Structure formats: C-alpha cells, structure tokens
C-alpha cells in the first residue's frame, strides 16, 4: 500500500473540520465538453479519525469513491489525516476535449 500511496496517488493533507470532496473538469481550450465519459476516482483516507457523512461512523482508515462530476464526499475530519486519490477509468487529461480532471476539496 505504501508504494501506491507514494508513487501512484495524489496525496492531500486534511486538517480538522468539515471537507467536501468532488471532481471538476477544467477546460484548457474553448472546445465543447462531452460528458459521456465520467471519471471514477478511488480515495484512500488514512492517518487520523474521520467520519464519512454517509455512514456517520468514525474510522481511522477508509476507502471511498467519487463516481463522476456530480458525486460529493463530505468528511468530518476529527484528527489531521491524509487523503490519497487514485484516478480510475479516465485519464486525468482528456485529449479529445482538451480538459483536465481536478480534485476539489473545500473546507466548510
């Protein structure tokens, strides 16, 4: 797992508080955006206690997914932790629409 965390994933540190995690497509040029291919991102959250608002259960480590642009994960971070993002099923840069995938984390 450590090899995946350090060589494949995109790590993001999360401080104590409520965080909304989602995906966003950023257009690099002025072409039309085709939403036929929605991305799938696997999230490994590890290192401190968090509560996934969908389950309401505090855990020290958990997996979750973001399935497309409309999916939102809300986390209550009880202790500083790290979120590791793994992009599956879609490249981070779409050459046909000249856009890229962006992981968005908003602390509320």
Radius of gyration: 15 Å
Q: Order of helices and strands, N to C?
A: HEEEEEEEE
**Helix and strand composition category:** mainly beta
CATH topology name? Jelly Rolls
**What ranges have pLDDT less than 50 throughout 5 or more consecutive residues?**
none
The first-level CATH class name: Mainly Beta
Q: What is the residue-averaged pLDDT? A: 82
Using DSSP, what is the number of strands?
8
CATH architectural label: Sandwich
Largest sheet: 8 strands, antiparallel
- Structural shape: globular
CATH homolog superfamily: Clp1, DNA binding domain
Helix percent band = under 10%
Beta content comes to: over 45%
Oligomer: single chain
Q: In total, how many domains does the architecture comprise?
A: 1
Note the gap between the termini. Answer: 30 Å
Enumerate how many helices there are, as a single number.
1
């Amino acid at each position: 797992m450590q090899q995946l965390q350090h060589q494949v994933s995109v790590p993001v540190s999360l401080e104590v508080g409520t965080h909304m995690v989602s995906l966003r497509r950023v257009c690099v040029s002025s072409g039309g955006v085709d939403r036929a291919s929605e991305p799938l991102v696997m999230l490994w959250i590890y290192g401190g206690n968090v509560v996934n608002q969908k389950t309401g259960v505090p855990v020290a480590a958990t997996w979750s997914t973001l399935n497309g642009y409309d999916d939102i994960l809300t986390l209550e971070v009880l202790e500083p932790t790290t979120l590791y993002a793994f992009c599956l099923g879609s490249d981070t840069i779409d050459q046909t629409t000249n856009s890229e995938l962006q992981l968005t984390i908003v602390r509320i």
